[in-house]
Amino acid sequence: MLSDVTDLLACPQCQARVELDEGAILCDIGHSFDVARQGYVSLMTGAGGKFDGDSTEMIAARADFLGSGRFDPLMDAVAGAVASGAEPDGDLRIMEIGAGTGHYLARVLDAVPSGRGIGLDVSKYAARRIARAHPRAGAVVADAWQHLPVRDHVLSHVLCVFAPRNADEAHRVLSQRGSLVVLTPTDRHLGELVELLGMVRVDDRKVERLGAAMSGRFERTAHVAAEYPMSLSHLDVTRLVGMGPSARHLTPDRVAASIAALPQQSPVTASVTVATYTRL
Length: 280
Ligand SMILES: C[S@@+](CC[C@H](N)C(=O)[O-])C[C@H]1O[C@@H](n2cnc3c(N)ncnc32)[C@H](O)[C@@H]1O
Ligand SMILES: [Zn+2]
What we know:
By secondary structure, this protein is of the alpha/beta class. The protein has helices at about 1-5, 55-65, 70-85, 105-110, 125-135, 165-175, 195, 205-215, 235-240, 250-260, and strands at about 20, 25, 30-35, 40, 95, 115-120, 135-140, 155-160, 175-185, 220-230, 265-280. About 30% of the residues lie in helices and about 30% in strands. It has an 8-stranded mixed beta sheet. Strands 1-2-3 form a 3-stranded antiparallel beta sheet, with no helix packed on it. The radius of gyration is 19 Å and the shape is globular. S-adenosylmethionine binds near residues 98, 104 and 122.
């Protein structure tokens, strides 16, 4: 719930500490942000960002796909990365940026019983799910590319799973020796479905830019690869397509025809790396 993480949040207007009071997040000088009926708070500033994030349909497809268990080994890899370096009863303060449905954050919080977590996403449809994802998770709408509504140096872990990585902000909000855990797909991830998913190769310059933003401020302290074959039904593939950006690019008829042409069970590879960067 939001009350579990309010002490970690900052006012997006003035960066002061905030409190949760009668259904609103408030700072000392009176900036106020209503908590939505569904339990999340939007701490966006200005006239809304450039990004709307995932639509309600994309989030629903993602929830169904993740609920099928096909990506459980990926969630376990992220949870393992957090749990392995942590004191079992330490006060873990975690934030997932671009948390989507909150499935990964929930798995992490299950693995660290003393932990609590902020699930941040620019999509309000995501935030609605995150608010229900775990009793120790609070849901916040904010743009990963802006100054995040989180106090300086208060977090033990920042997670980025198939989501935007803002190394500057991760550095600011993490405490010293805190961890940035990044899950990145390899070139083989869902490779069998490249055309259907309209996947774009990871931009090499983007990887370089992240490396440059990290250098001197983080050191890579752990690196785990997770790769395994999946056997996906037409329904699984339909959900996978629906949760990605290709849902915006292909006509529904084209998607349906391509899926109908697949075998009943398609072999598809899951392949990612989970890297832990320790803040210096
Ligand atoms: C590919 S999904 C990954 C979701 C989740 N981590 C998972 O793996 O299931 C990317 C998520 O990042 C969110 N997102 C995209 N741009 C964002 C931004 N600028 N700030 C915050 N979240 C953003 C989307 O709304 C979406 O929920
Ligand atoms: Zn304020």
